[in-house]
Automatic annotation (TrEMBL):
Keywords assigned: Membrane, Transmembrane, Transmembrane helix
UniProt record similarity statement: Belongs to the GerABKA family.
PANTHER family, per the entry: LEUCINE ZIPPER PROTEIN 4, SPORE GERMINATION PROTEIN
Transmembrane segments: 308-330, 379-396, 402-423, 435-458
Protein name: Spore germination protein
One Pfam family in the UniProt entry: GerA
Domain of life: Bacteria
Keyword Chaperone attributed: no
GO CC list: membrane
Taxonomic source organism: Cohnella fermenti
Matching InterPro entries: Spore_Ger (IPR004995), UPF0353/GerABKA_families (IPR050768)
GO BP: spore germination
UniProt lineage: Bacteria, Bacillati, Bacillota, Bacilli, Bacillales
């Protein structure tokens, strides 16, 4: 390797160079590659007879455990007869012969031959040791990053069942899932995204449970992702969805390991990314967004009633504002006389038509919802509740909105909170407004047309090739019954065994 470094520009151009035999050259290259990185530490030290041989450790102080660095350095300085031979002071030749011919002493130590691997190892939390006179570097894993402890799921709280959630550490999440599903049929495939981030990503599936065509389609979708910067597992959604402009979610997320395991048993594919606490699940169907793992922790009657309650909440959140607008504007004869007189009495003095009134109140409600999410948790809920009460009362007293409209908007918002999956609630927030405009323009006919268009869109939608409206379209009576009525645990387990036996290994 040329040793004249003055003719080479500083920066990443050196990343493709081989490690030099001269220690000073290696230190110079590392300083240029990590220029202006204040957390890069370069420690020079000696080893061997009379400590006359030179070496240095290079690592990022913000990633590395200093105790493990010191242990690794002392191990190299104190190599004795049980490692190399009958000498108490290792020489350079013995050091090279040991590592190049006998291999590293532990799996966490690697031999690095070029600076591209050296840079990647330093960024992964390795201590890299350069030895004067040797054109290889030693890398020892010493990563030490603070981890968030396992806590209750934030987005999926539960009363009955496990209370553990996934965290930002990928290995911990996989370990929890493997501990719940102890079978060698559970497969995990690792790969690393490219670009600047270099994020570790993994997808898992249960052999014999997942459809081979679905697994092959998933793999083909993520083929081009290796060169992209992936910050969170939700970034994978852009590659997996078939209709990017659809408001309906085509994957779902969970922070519950038991939900991820249940999805694997049903033949789903899960994906995780290092640094992301969420688990992506695909393919999905429309009815799955009304199902939670908690349904199977209670009695069948109660769980079935709760599932029907969620479906009712979906209809209310989607259609209640537009239905009120259509009835009060075009179809007042359908409202009972006493109720109609009460509505007319509350609307007396309101300067806006029902459509404008609904838009104003929906805007205020969405604003309060976002403010409650962004504010610090101790005051967020209090501000959102007090704000809703104050604004609602002020709107009624100033005759900007009627009490009935405030009730309609409040019920709509509460119904959207009853849905288990947040991304489905976002779809309802988007679809509500086109239906409101159709209702204000054409009344009940507009709602019917909008509902038919939504249904047609759902019938054409697929998730990894699977029909989104399955088991309704195409119709599968047994699965459709299980979507509405919670099956017994015994039937659910027997159904899983039957599906696993029918599918060949992927």
């Amino acid at each position: 390797m040329p040793n004249d470094l003055t003719t080479r520009p500083a920066g990443a151009e050196h990343a493709d160079l081989a490690v030099s035999r001269r220690l000073s050259d290696n230190i110079t290259i590392m300083n240029r590659l990590f220029a202006e990185c204040g957390d890069l530490k370069v420690y020079s030290w000696n080893y061997g007879a009379g400590l006359g041989s030179k070496a240095c450790s290079v690592f990022l102080d913000t990633l590395v455990n200093h105790r493990r660095h010191n242990d690794f350095k002392e191990a190299l300085q104190n190599l004795t007869t049980d490692r190399i031979g009958p000498t108490t002071s290792v020489t350079l030749a013995e050091l090279i012969a040991f590592f190049e011919h006998r291999g590293t002493a532990e799996p966490a130590v690697e031999l690095l031959g070029d600076f591209s691997r050296v840079v990647a190892s330093v960024l992964d939390g390795y201590v890299v040791v350069f030895v004067d006179g040797w054109n290889r570097a030693l890398g020892s894993l010493a990563l030490d990053i603070a981890k968030r402890p396992v806590s209750e799921p934030i987005t999926e709280p539960t009363v009955q069942g496990p209370h553990a959630s996934t965290i930002e550490d990928l290995d911990s999440n996989i370990g929890v899932i493997r501990n719940l599903l102890k079978t060698n049929r559970l497969k995990f495939r690792f790969f690393e995204s490219g670009g600047t981030v270099r994020r570790r990503i993994v997808y898992g599936y249960l052999d014999n449970a997942v459809k081979p065509a679905t697994l092959e389609r998933f793999r083909s979708r993520i083929d081009g992702i290796a060169a992209e910067d992936i910050l969170d597992v939700s970034y994978l959604e852009s590659w997996l969805v078939e209709s990017r402009w659809s408001p309906f979610p085509q994957v779902r997320y969970t922070e519950r390991p038991d939900t991820a395991v249940a999805a694997l048993l049903e033949g789903k594919i899960i994906a995780l990314a290092n640094g992301s606490p969420s688990v992506l699940i695909c393919p999905v169907s429309f009815m799955e967004f009304f199902v939670t793992s908690e349904d199977y922790y209670y009695g069948i009657v109660y769980s079935t009633l709760i599932r029907f309650l969620r479906m009712s909440a979906f209809i209310i959140a989607l259609l209640l504002p537009s239905t009120y607008i259509a009835l009060s504007t075009f179809h007042s004869e359908l409202i009972p006389t006493v109720l109609l007189l009460a509505i007319l009495n509350t609307r007396e003095g309101i300067p806006f038509p029902a459509m404008v009134e609904a838009l104003l109140m929906e805007f205020f409600f969405e604003l309060l919802r976002e403010a409650g999410i962004r504010l610090p948790r101790p005051i967020g809920s209090a501000v959102s509740i007090v704000g809703a009460l104050v604004i609602g009362q002020a709107a009624i007293q100033s005759q900007i909105a009627s009490p009935v409209m405030v009730i309609v908007v409040a019920l709509t918002g509460i119904a959207s909170f009853a849905l288990p999956q947040y991304n489905m609630a976002i779809a309802l927030r988007i679809l509500r407004f086109p239906l409101m405009f159709l209702a204000a323009s054409f009344g009940g006919l507009g709602i019917m047309v909008g509902f038919i268009l939504i249904y047609l869109h759902l019938t054409c939608l697929h998730s990894l090739g699977e029909p989104y409206l399955s088991p309704l379209a195409p119709l599968e009576v047994r699965k459709l019954r299980n979507s509405f009525f919670v099956p017994s645990r015994r039937k659910a387990l027997s159904g899983f065994r039957r599906r696993s036996a029918d599918r060949p290994p992927s």
